[in-house]
Specification:
Elements lengths: L2 E9 L4 E7 L2 E3 L1 H5 L5 E4 L4 E4 L1 E6 L12 H10 L2 E6 L10 H14 L3 E4 L15 H6 L6 E2 L9 H13 L3 E4 L12 E2 L2 H6 L3 E2 L2 H17 L3 E3 L5 H12 L4 E5 L1 H5 L21 H13 L4 E2 L28 H10 L6 H15 L17 E9 L19 E9 L2 E5 L2 E2 L8
Parallel strand pairs: 1-4, 1-5, 6-7, 7-8, 9-10, 10-13, 11-12, 13-14, 14-15
Antiparallel strand pairs: 1-2, 2-3, 5-16, 16-17, 17-18, 18-19
This protein binds zinc ion (2 copies).
């Protein structure tokens, strides 16, 4: 049984303390201090956060292994300070059966870097026609608690209503990719004067906002939980604020890229900056940051979307939608929100670990560092330069050449180091 003594880390940015880890769980530091085999980690000057939890990751396996596998995605996650990720269902084939979601969870366990929680599809094949077997996926070994057709919107109101009803009975949540397909046909970038000037088809804010407005009302009418993926406009925040004030059970996420990048980057015509939903205006970015501060936005989720170079080294209209995110999410949050003083490290623990875990019904994250709980820790130097992403199989990192602050130094998952001194701990590919 490996034991660790982590010395002198600032817990959630508060005073320095020692953490003890034994048999995968937190123990009193004095309990391991005397043990001969205890490995001592000098964490002076580092901040200890609970292991990060991503509610929105694309790992591309099965079907897209040239872009990412569960193993490489898990490695990227560990390097980014994550100990759990939720793997979206838009793989090929789609994760819409008990067998497939169980396979995804098993691949994650075999990789051993993070807990991989499969997201089940809402509709069969993501086709938006017929509900997938939500109950069977919830009752499978993978115990799915998040369902999403992400990449596509559950557009049919009746289907969405039935999905919410089923989710309620399974204590699960529907995570909606809010995009009215009729309003975004052929859309390439944020709608407005810049899209017109660049000659690219525009993606109006109302395509997102109108779906969110419908969905919060549907969630209210059936008494179910709704989660809104990647909120990108100031107007969406207003709708969610209204819904929360009304007592509707809705949670919302923002991606790191929507907290930092704006539509002006599309002027380069580099598909690196092509993403769904698109990069918006600076006033949207500022509103999104403010919504994280006020809590209208509950969590930061990466929407990590690896793509092979052939669909990113091409013309903008031909490019694929999506950006890498796992290894840069914490640095973006530190650089845009924490270091400028908008939120505290305690807030980061809430919106990047405790709350996403609660939304996904993931156990072991409700009270960071509590004795007896699984030892999931991220030790980060919040002000040194961030490391370059290197865990993913893909290279579509939109922050290339940007100075981001925040270096993940050690990541511990279930009491074992997955990253130490900024480097991955090699784990053999085992059959779990
Ligand atoms: Zn999406
Ligand atoms: Zn996504």
């Amino acid at each position: 049984m490996t034991s660790y003594l982590i010395q002198g880390a600032s817990l959630l940015g508060a005073k320095a303390a020692d953490l003890g880890v034994l048999g995968g769980a937190f123990v009193d530091a004095t309990k391991v201090a005397g043990l001969k085999k205890t490995r001592v980690i000098d964490a002076t000057g580092l901040v200890a956060l609970p292991g990060l939890v991503d509610l929105h990751t694309h790992v591309r396996q099965p079907g897209g292994e040239q872009a990412e596998t569960v193993r490489t995605g898990s490695r990227a996650a560990a390097l980014g300070g994550y100990t759990a990720v939720h793997a979206m269902a838009n793989t090929s084939p789609v994760s819409d059966t008990a067998e497939l979601v169980s396979a995804v969870a098993r691949w994650g366990a075999e990789a051993g870097y993070v807990e991989v929680r499969p997201v089940g599809a809402v509709t069969k094949g993501l086709e938006g026609q017929e509900l997938a077997p939500l109950g069977a996926m919830a009752r499978s070994a993978a115990q799915v608690r998040v369902f999403s057709d992400d990449g596509k919107c559950v557009h049919d109101s009746s289907l969405m209503r039935r999905a919410l009803q089923q989710a309620r009975s399974l204590d699960a949540v529907i995570a909606q990719h809010a995009q009215d397909p009729g309003l975004t046909e052929g859309a390439q970038m944020n709608d407005g004067p810049l899209a017109a000037a660049l000659g690219l088809a525009g993606w109006p804010a109302v395509a997102e906002e109108s779906i969110i407005a419908r969905d919060v009302l549907l969630a209210e009418s059936v008494g179910a939980r709704l989660h809104v993926c990647h909120v990108s406009t100031a107007g969406s925040i207003e709708v969610i604020r209204w819904a929360k004030a009304r007592g509707i059970s809705v949670t919302a996420e923002v991606t790191p890229h929507h907290l930092l990048l704006t539509e002006e980057l599309v002027s380069t015509f580099d598909p690196l900056f092509k993403v769904n939903p698109p990069l918006r205006r600076q006033e949207d970015v500022l509103a999104l940051r403010e919504a994280v501060v006020s809590g209208v936005i509950d969590i930061v989720a990466t929407d990590h979307a690896p793509h092979p170079s052939e669909v990113k080294d091409c013309s903008f209209p031909e490019g694929a939608f999506g950006m890498l995110g796992l290894e840069t999410a914490l640095p973006v949050v530190l650089s845009t929100l924490v270091n400028p003083g908008m939120v505290s490290l305690k807030d980061v623990a809430r919106f990047m670990s405790t709350t996403p875990a609660a939304i996904g019904r993931l156990e072991g994250y409700s009270s960071p560092f509590a004795l007896g709980e699984p030892a999931h820790i991220t030790l980060v130097d919040p002000t040194t330069e961030a490391s370059e992403p290197r865990g993913s199989l893909s290279h579509n990192n939109p922050y290339r050449g940007r100075d981001l602050e925040g270096r993940v130094v050690h990541t511990m998952y279930r009491g074992d180091l997955t990253v130490t001194d900024g480097e991955l701990v090699e784990r053999p590919e085992v059959n779990a």
